[in-house]
Amino acid sequence: MDQRRVILAVFLMLIVAVLPGILSKPKPADRLPSGLPDSAAQAATPPARPVTESPAPAVRAPIGTPVTLPAETVWVTSPVYRYGLSTRGAQLVAAELVQYRSFAPGDSARLVNLIPDGGPLLGSRLVLGGDTVALSDLAFTPSRQGSTVGFTAPLGSGSVSVTYRFAAEDYHFSVEGRIEGLGGGGVLLVDLGHGLRSVEAEPMADYREYAVVTKADKTQKRTFASLDPGERIVLDGPFEWVAVKSKYFFAAVLAPEQDARPFAGAIVIGQPRDSVPVTGLFGTRRSTLATRTVVVTTIAVPATGDFHYDVYVGPFEHQRLAQLGHGLDDANPYGWSIFRPIIHPVSVVVVHILFWMHERLHLAYGWVLVFFGVLVRMLLWPLQQRAMESQMRMQAVQPLMQDIQKRYKSEPEKLQREMLRLYKEHKINPLGGCLPMLLPMPVLLALFFVFTNTIEFRGVPFLWLPDLSRHDPLYIVPVLMGLSMFAVSKLGQRGLPPNPQTKMMLYMMPAMLTFVFLRLASGLNLYYAVQNLISLPQQWLISKRRLATQAR
Which pLDDT score, from 0 to 100, does residue 151 have? Predict the structure, then answer.
């Protein structure tokens, strides 16, 4: 819905910017790979129960036989995360982010936990020929040394060990494993679970962003919503990383080295769709949407039995992921695919400017948006001035243009030459009145994606606004934006020839754009309202000059 609103908003703003100038001028003349069992793509086991002190005893069992023992959770904490690892399957059952709070109904003010109920991450299955060993069902014995946590479990006549190595203030950690006594290599299936838990106040906006993202030569995304319940697809690799994402958070398994591609492929299975609440202008309704999808990736295990991969489970911070490498920051790019080559670079520049102003000037993000809006309008002031002067010159020569059109209406080529001569003689650029008005559009569109995808704005308050990334609950800012837009248009039409279409647009466009912007991010509305308010003095000066010119 937000994307449709912004497309409509951009279309309407283009009309507002271009059409008045036009109306004031005279009319011219899949497939499945072999060897992967169906059980490989099943959902992971339920999460482990809370921590107890003693480790589960080691129990030997035949290959593939699950051991049903009470599971315990080993916690690893730092200033930025609190990860929980279960002794059942040595898998990740909790990923709490210390610096972020959940806004989800019934979960508000708690730490963000990215692991959904019933869907632990990093559960594993080992495929050996036609046999499947469910490592996620084994009872492991934990050991710990600082930020390194190891797990071992018997497996047939051999054993399996998994070691997690964490960094103090980074959501990026490594997983190393060794399988002994089985003879020969195999394929390890690493489970990315059912997606990520929704922790947003408006879950529908979160669920729309749920997707499986992979990187081979380039990044590719498959949204959960595009999968039918029960549909199974196989993504052919090899991949450098495989990930699942929500609106602001991200879980990925990735190669330890840059440009390596250890993941042979990925299996994705659509799950039954859930009914989620959707809050709009006219109350709350429920909508059915794909919110869960099983994602499993495959990695080859050599005859030595060793395997190694890295993991990122945390917020989607563009700067952090860009420093981590692997092209991870491209998993949540700014802009739709068709406009991405234009919008993404503009968005990156805008984000860096906003971050710089926030950090160096020590301003709250709300004031950063206000000053950024003033800065953009000041930079465009000279271009806007020239555009208005071009429009006034165009209006002044309208009688000459009409005379040329009458004299050469039956000679199109001569008419064109005379019109070009007139433009050159009076220093008129036919597009000069429109292009400066269109220049702010890429910045406005970039800011839409910035507020949609940039976690730094999540939950940031300003004055009465509880969250700059969500709509204004009192609708003050969008109404102010609409009124300021009406004032700009009203001043811009002073001194122009009467035109019924232009007069109709004066009232309709601000009203329509106000309705479109009502549910968009309040930060976006704030920026656009500031743009309009700063434009008022210039519009007043230009209209005053236009009226003085007409009087002379």
Answer: 92
